[in-house]
Amino acid sequence: MPTSLNLVKTIFIINIVFITLSFYFQSELSSNLAILCAAISFITSVIFDKRIFNSNLFLFLSTLPIYLIIPLYQNPMLATLLVTLLISALVYKKQIFGLFNFGEIKDIKIWLAVALVSVVASISLIVWGILTSELTGVGEATSQELAKLSTIVILMLIPVGALLNAIVEEVIFRGIIQTELTKVFNISVAIFLQAFLFAGFHYAGGFPNGLIGFAMTFVYACALGLMRCKVKGLFAPIITHTFADMTILIFLWVYF
């Protein structure tokens, strides 16, 4: 294996660690270190090996407060994704769209897996929500916004909001990141790394969050990564993710 590729892979893993630590410590120092590592990882991929260019680009942009510049529905992850896609489209033309093929579900076992993961994830989310002492982050903000809306608006918003969030997160983590990582790592490592990142992004303000939330989200992301691998597309992960997000929204609406 070329030394340059080993360098890119090593720096990328270090980048993931520092980004995750920045979510854990939430300090100015950890944030600055995350930005520095993300910048180095991005530059290294541009110079030596572009196979994980888009993943590095997204992670670098995600360490920057671009949501202050592009407050797209107050969703920094969506804003970061759109900027990443725009830059990638200019650099790679149409190649970027091959990273998030939707695929097909032809095997009944995949549908059973979708149902099983959806049910287990939904039950786990409800149990975590009931046992958590207080809502923080996106859970608190979402609960407050839902309280302002009428029932009919909420009933329309839940499936649409859940689907949109599922598409955004699946395109990022199982689409761009996992797909690119399989080009330089074996599939097991690629699934592990995307799941670790996914859990890290949800650690501080996600639903669920904290160390227990990190573990839950990591296992969940591994299952979604396996689905993406089996169907060679994002259709199954998006369906599963949508059901989980609908559970969260319904729970926040009814319980809080």
From TrEMBL:
Glycoprotein among keywords: no
Membrane-spanning ranges: 7-25, 31-48, 55-73, 79-103, 110-131, 151-172, 184-204, 210-227, 234-255
Domain CAAX prenyl protease 2/Lysostaphin resistance protein A-like: 155-246
InterPro entries per UniProt: Rce1/LyrA-like_dom (IPR003675)
Pfam families, alphabetized: Rce1-like (PF02517)
Highest rank taxon of the organism: Bacteria
Keyword Protease: yes
Molecular function terms, GO-annotated: endopeptidase activity; metallopeptidase activity
Swiss-Prot/TrEMBL keywords: Hydrolase, Membrane, Metalloprotease, Protease, Transmembrane, Transmembrane helix
GO biological process: one example: CAAX-box protein maturation
Stated name of the protein: CPBP family intramembrane metalloprotease
